[in-house]
């Protein structure tokens, strides 16, 4: 065996020792104090659950976390979920300031990026984590693509911008920080802007199922490029007059004073609500 082949073999062996494999019981990776720091470095985005086996909330989220992990591994590229047992791996949990269970954090290339404050059900976790990959705001080039996006069951924040727009710069900054709450798209296509009647504007579009005769389908931001004012607009206008609060979008209502009416709406029997 040549020196170079020997070096390659040693390098591969070291990588196999460092990179954790999905645990035998499912698709959620398990980390320990010994492998956590090196093990999380290869991942562009990684959601880690810090838990205690005796914790009731941890037991409740466990099957949802597992289902989300399985689905996110089918993503292109795959998104990984991991967990750390804080009753066994106390050093790691202390290092990241874990004081309650479960605590979820998002890591990027070995560095903690933010606390996870999204949904705790499988579909909500999947949606939230998919929003953490790729560009925070997608550029739209065709009217057909734009129409398709507006038909989805999501609040969509759309920017219509000319070149060198200061409002666009603010829009993209906010998309980076609020990507876990909303879907952001933008366009500079003149045909799309003429078709929808917007130019250097930000518009919050309601999901199709929430369209009604009492309010417009889209809410236009009429302020300047101040990021704080744009965030305030998103906070108050994205759910319309009466928003529909679910387990998946609960985090969108966490800063609003609310009057809550509980009821049942069957969108299959009555698509308009």
From TrEMBL:
Keywords: Disulfide bond, Endoplasmic reticulum, Isomerase, Redox-active center, Repeat, Signal
One term under GO cellular component: endoplasmic reticulum lumen
The reaction(s) this protein catalyses: Catalyzes the rearrangement of -S-S- bonds in proteins
GO molecular function: protein disulfide isomerase activity
A GO biological process held by the record: protein folding
InterPro entries: PDI_thioredoxin-like_dom, PDIA3_PDI_b, Thioredoxin-like_sf, Thioredoxin_CS, Thioredoxin_domain
Localization annotation: Endoplasmic reticulum lumen
Entry's EC annotation: 5.3.4.1
Highest taxon of the lineage: Eukaryota
Signal sequence bounds: 1-24
Pfam families the UniProt entry points to: Thioredoxin
Residues annotated as domain Thioredoxin: 10-134
Chief location: endoplasmic reticulum
Family note: Belongs to the protein disulfide isomerase family.
Protein name: protein disulfide-isomerase
